[in-house]
Write a structure and sequence with these properties.
This protein has twelve helices and nine strands. It is an alpha/beta fold. It folds into two domains: 224 residues, Spore Coat Polysaccharide Biosynthesis Protein SpsA, Chain A, CATH 3.90.550; 132 residues. The radius of gyration is 27 Å and the shape is elongated. The structure holds guanosine-5'-diphosphate (GDP) and magnesium ion (MG).
């Protein structure tokens, strides 16, 4: 059996069109299926309409009163669904109802574990879709290329074998549930060309928050896909901010408190180390709740001091053996030293200061 999950918010006008059409497609193709509408307590009475439709069609509605959001509604639908293949689609007929059999057939045939409706493969496209939304969709798609090989990562039309989703922690933010599922379950998938038609009834619920949520969601998915690289990028960003703290303290101590710059540099170094430790603990390694502070901090300071040695050591080698002592080459030598030391500090932090040792 297949379960078709439709998230809705204020879809009174569209749900009465899609349910009969879907039911007919299922019947014509001899597919046994159920339709699950997950409604976020729409004020326009969407749920009441589904209850009426339930007398004639294989559909039921679940009303979420305490939560909101398209993706979470779909996750709720996964929990409720009884089928062994799930289909996710919009209520507004943007996703071609008649393509549902084409979406599930490759899964039934064992060719793949998931299918995704794509507007970017041959035969796919848009119908009546405003140009600015097409562009947004394309840009959003390009941004996701690093986490998925989907040709149309922002598509909302998908079919997937239940067994693939079972046990996977889905934590979607915003709208892109298909992207979340594909990245986290990494199934064998096939793309099915679809023509996406803009809705004729009701209105889009996409707002400007959706774009911000999308970026936050992508950030998380990149972190999920490339955990160590992602931590290294965060670590480097903290490092750059630490350099600003270092310079600010140095300048303040010298200019305002008349310290000798060499003495001021010691204070600057420790201010930056404390700054970096705080943000690496809370953000880069997200271990604020688990890592005990004392030994972890002491080892972090030690790693940074050794890192300083690595930086000077690399500079020394470059100046000595690569003739990089002359201006401006020594600056490059210093950058290479900083980069090497950052890598050293990163792995030291990851595998010592913020590791299991101090939990
Ligand atoms: N349950 C639930 N469904 C939603 C929510 N926002 C949008 N939807 C549904 O998600 C589908 C896609 O929404 P739509 O507004 O058409 O987005 P667009 O096609 O990107 O403009 C439709 O079926 C909406 O009713 C929400 O907050 N909760
Ligand atoms: Mg729509």
């Amino acid at each position: 059996m297949i379960s078709i999950i439709i998230p809705t918010f204020n879809e009174a006008d569209t749900i009465k069109l899609i349910v009969p059409r879907l039911s007919k497609v299922l019947q014509d193709e001899g597919i046994s299926g159920e339709i699950i509408v997950v409604d976020d307590n729409s004020p326009d009475g969407t749920a009441d309409i589904v209850m009426e439709l339930a007398e004639r069609y294989p559909v039921r509605v679940y009303i979420r009163k305490n939560d909101k959001g398209l993706s979470k509604a779909v996750v709720k639908g996964f929990e409720l669904a009884a089928g062994d293949i799930f289909v996710v689609m919009d209520a507004d007929l943007s996703h071609p109802v008649e393509q549902v059999p084409a979406m599930i057939r490759p899964i039934l045939d064992g060719k793949c574990d998931a299918t995704v409706g794509s507007r970017s493969v041959v035969g796919g496209g848009y119908h009546n879709f405003p140009i600015h939304r097409k562009i947004t969709s394309k840009v959003a798609g390009i941004m996701a290329k690093g986490v998925t090989s989907l040709s149309d990562p922002t598509s909302g039309f998908m079919a997937i074998r239940k067994s693939v989703i079972d046990g996977i922690a889905l934590d979607p933010l915003g709208w892109k549930i298909v992207l979340e599922v594909i990245v986290k379950t990494a199934p064998r998938f096939v793309e099915i060309p679809i023509i996406f038609t803009d809705r004729k009834q009701g209105e889009s619920k996409l707002d400007s928050n959706a774009q911000i949520d999308y970026i936050r969601h992508l950030w998380r998915l990149y972190g999920y896909r490339f955990p160590t690289l992602f931590q290294f990028i965060k670590f480097s960003l903290v490092g750059i901010s630490g350099l600003i703290v270092d310079t600010a303290v140095l300048v303040s101590f010298v200019d305002l408190l008349s310290f000798d710059p060499r003495v001021a540099a010691i204070f600057a170094f420790f201010a930056a180390v404390c700054w970096n430790y705080t943000f690496d603990r809370l953000w880069t390694f997200d271990s604020g709740k688990t890592t005990k502070i004392a030994y972890s901090f002491i080892s972090f300071v030690t790693i940074c001091l050794v890192g300083l040695g690595v930086r000077i050591g690399v500079m020394h080698l470059l100046i000595e053996y690569a003739q990089m002592g002359e201006s401006p080459w020594y600056i490059l030598a210093s950058f290479i030293g900083i980069f090497t030391a950052t890598i050293f500090n990163f792995f030291g932090s990851k595998y010592i200061a913020f590791s299991k040792l101090f939990r």
